[in-house]
Amino acid sequence: ETYNKHIIYMYITVALLVNLIIEMLARGSFLKGIFYLISSPYVFICNSIIILMTLSVTLLMRRRFFGISIISIVWIIFGIANCVLLSYRVTPFTAVDMMLIDSALDVMNKYLNTFAYILIIALAILAVVGLVFVWIKVPKVNHKINYVRNIIAIAIIWVIGFGAINLGIASSLLSAKFGNLADSYRDYGFVYCFTNSLVNTGVDKPADYSDKTIKSLTADVEETKVKKKPNIIFLQLESFFDINNMTNITFSENPVPYFESLMEQYPSGYLDVPIVGAGTVNTEFEVMTGMNLDDFGPGEYPFKTILKETTCESIAYNLKEYGYATHAIHDNTATFYSRNVVFSNLGYDTFSSIETMNIDDFTPMGWAKDYFLTDEIVAALDSTEGQDYIYTISVQGHGSYPTEGDYDYPITVSGLDDQAKTNQYQYYVWQINEMDKFIQKLVETLSKRDEDTILVMYGDHLPSLGITESELVNGDVYQTQYVIWSNFKTKYEDEDIEAYQLQSKILGGLNMTAGTINNYTQKHKNDDDYADGVDDADGLQNLEYDSLYGDHLLYGGDNPYVATDIQFGLTKVSVSSISPMNDGSGTVYIYGKNFTNYSKVYINDEKVSTVFIDDSTLMINYGDLKDGDSFSVYQQNSDTHVLKKTDPIIFESENLAMPQEETTIPETTVPETKKNRKNKKNKE
Length: 684
Description:
Layout: H1 7-27, H2 30-39, H3 41-55, H4 64-88, H5 101-107, H6 114-137, H7 147-170, H8 181-188, H9 190-199, H10 211-217, E1 231-237, E2 250-251, H11 257-265, E3 268-272, H12 280-289, H13 315-320, E4 325-330, H14 339-345, E5 350-352, H15 373-382, E6 388-393, E7 413-414, H16 419-447, E8 453-459, E9 479-486, E10 497-498, H17 502-508, H18 516-524, H19 539-548, E11 567-568, E12 574-580, E13 587-593, E14 599-603, E15 606-608, E16 610-614, E17 617-621, E18 630-638, E19 641-645, E20 649-650, H20 674-679
Parallel strand pairs: 1-6, 1-8, 3-10, 4-5, 4-6, 5-11
Antiparallel strand pairs: 2-7, 3-9, 8-9, 12-13, 13-17, 14-15, 14-18, 16-17, 18-19, 18-20
């Protein structure tokens, strides 16, 4: 019989077992999972009750055991996802990560090997087979369901659940607000924290939010006279920090000598960033907007939530008030973290991404090398007559960091007993050493230009190498370093600051007060009620809420920021001529300007397999070419992500130029496989 009066015991048992499995996965150990149960029984029970709350809805189903199996498997899949993510980064799995699936798919090949793919597919097949078996073999409830009684039972379970959670919060065994996300997951359990990330998003409405409060926060806003308007360049360096700050390892030579010399000569300090090991765009968010990510939901990525829907104050919009042209540059795909949409909502005029660049040198793990960014920055500076603001996002230092490989490491690392870990550090050091050389070349290039320029450089977060606070001189895994280089005298001073205060530091040093949040931070960042995140008098949180979720009281009720008609790339892609070979092979050459590896030929609006030859030549094989065919070239990283396309050109055989000789395909156009990249030596 599938039903008896003691069925609730089965529900409780399943909830406890599923929670135990999840915590064992999170801690990477059976014994650590058991220890967590024993050391934190109330928290463990609360997490189990949350699972029980989700299971309870199956009391209304005839295929009750199938429903229990589905829900249990979903929870365990979340637990496995958390376990996998923790093996690559420090930040645990949150609900927002499910919104990042498109970005994750773009980079999976850089993290997972063939065996991992096979294992994932095998586990998926096993789960489906198991569910089919349960559906077929496990009988339905063979009695009439008492819906009234069962709904009351569900309600009682949910009331008990909310009561237990609130009691835990009141007794400080649980917390409604998270600080360090990894610590919170470890202390309060995966299920509770993940559920919190699912329902707790955005900025909470402050209790004192009102027109009066907003007016009081902006009462002392005043314009100041700006004497100098230099070019302003932000360079966000992927996973970069001064690794000499580590206390447990030594190097055959200094990996970042130039960056250290800049920190000695120019204003610098520690930068408190909101993430560690991953989550680049959250540092971007704080730097660009001046908003404190601590005021948002746990693990939230505003780039994937609110900023896809609305505009808000940003350093780009603030500098537009002083006549600046605004550019974003990133040597990865434009759609990663939805930057192609968000950057428009943050006020950028142009966005140069890898789809618009001719990059032919990559790390063994497939990330573009950063030295290409120097020419892109110079091109942005040359693209306008006046002052430019450029936000540049590096990618070379990105993980994962291989535990093995036949590499000629230019710098060796000592002090680690584990060879696999040593290999990871040597690979990482290799990459940041090249990034250090890129920084030097960039500074030398900017120094030769006859324009006042400020270059702000900083790491977005520490690398995902499992670095602990005890291994750092500064004792904080949420700190990187920044330095402010300039080719003219400035009044900046050394200080340790939050990432969300960086733009106000730079603009404040130039007497630029545009932007309410920028101005408020310049005047009040040392006030007790500025951004403590503790009580209702948090001024910054009021401004954040009003800007993104509130009534725009700051602006008289209307959001003044209008999304830009962003231009992808600084140069226009064009097609000048179509030239088929006369040998019957079907080979057709497309000539034009500014092609890249991401240029795809479309004939009559249908994509054709395209080979990139060089920036003025593409090749296709199309044996059905006829007069009247329409040719266009699209810049895209997938069929659903087209950044821009050329005006169509109509093929007419009578207008053909002289027949073209066959063009040799350069070696660099052959698509790189992971095996190719792994064996690729450093060419610099």
